[in-house]
DNA sequence: CGAGGAATTGACCGCCATCAATCATAGTGG
DNA sequence: CCACTATGATTGATGGCGGTCAATTCCTCG
């Protein structure tokens, strides 16, 4: 359950997140209308929606995706606690993507019409919003690099490594293991590969002892093997803002 | 040549761009340190650069890209007049991508240290910066959808259509034709395909009379054929800000 | 006119998609 | 407690889209 006060938000105390001034946190707290819960599989946002609020993912995992008419689906990036959602939605053009929950999800809700207040009176927070948007673009850049240039094996290694690092920053890793709610179909849709080929690649990495992925648990045994498999172009992440 | 005053910027008068208040334009004008010229092939920004100013592309074409160690290159998006560059560069982590010119390019230069002034005193412009960042992410989303899910033929059709529409909005199209500075290698690197396969696909579309691409000139004959080939998921663009 | 980049075409092949079937796991109702 | 069902994972067989190697032609430009 999300706390009622942003000042005591347990996310914010993680070293991953930067600090804000008390005044800024007070404003966030006041702007926050409350929280919403979604169950696994529910859509926080559907492609084409012409109205949405702004959300910060508080707990759980989700993903952002686009679909073609014939139901081919590309997952654009994975959303984890601290990620900010909904800025792209315009009433004129509608949401260019959908967001679907992988687990039960809790989000903090911010009414979009207050965004102007935020930009007007809290330039530091406005900058944070921009930073979060730019950061998400960086993730998509990385995914595009993978899908466009890396082999199947490299893609899988890259995404596993990226998720693992992100999860560790969020303190979701214990004994090199974490809860991993993606199915192989999700991984396939994220990497632009067929489900079957994705399975074969996972199987191979499993057999080689790089990591194991079974029953929604990911266990990484050999990060250095992962790194070399990934043809890794490291994109470091400094402290990130939380809104 | 860029005019010395932003108020008389010929870009701004295009219907593609939204209006700003006189005060905002005055601020942009004051923040602008001047212009820089690059020749075709020059890099405005190199992957890893730990310092850069902010730029608005005034004339010419460029592209944003990422490379792996072994020189595989993914072009992330094409940059055309009005595009904003450099926000992602942080002194701590360096530029996560490079920017290279396709033609001779002229950019307007804004010192990054004045960005705080902009956010503090001109929330409307701050919002514009965020919008531009978010919009670019939308383009990358589209490209990822293409590279991940579309066939070679569909990818080529999609990108040609997208460039054509963008060029038309910028008044670069006359008689269905425009100057098109990308080589087939660029298209290949953008679509995650080999040069040779890209050539074959282009050849086929050429033979079928959909468009012709020769001598740096793109001529589109059948946009509706393009649209159906692209399995198009239209992402409409409203008026965009210009900084 | 020569040189070098870009485009084109052919031959060959492999990674990965597709089709199909089986197995594993978990949840449900009788 | 055990069919029964649904979802997800796994494996085999086959084929095609698109990658790779190689050679030639075309353009552009000094």
Automatic annotation (TrEMBL), chains A, B:
Pfam families: cNMP_binding, HTH_Crp_2. CDD domains: CAP_ED. Coiled coil: none annotated. PANTHER family: CRP FAMILY TRANSCRIPTIONAL REGULATORY PROTEIN (PTHR24567), FUMARATE AND NITRATE REDUCTION REGULATORY PROTEIN (PTHR24567:SF75). Keywords: DNA-binding, Transcription, Transcription regulation. Residues 150-224 form the HTH crp-type domain. This is CRP-like cAMP-binding protein. Residues 16-86 form the Cyclic nucleotide-binding domain.
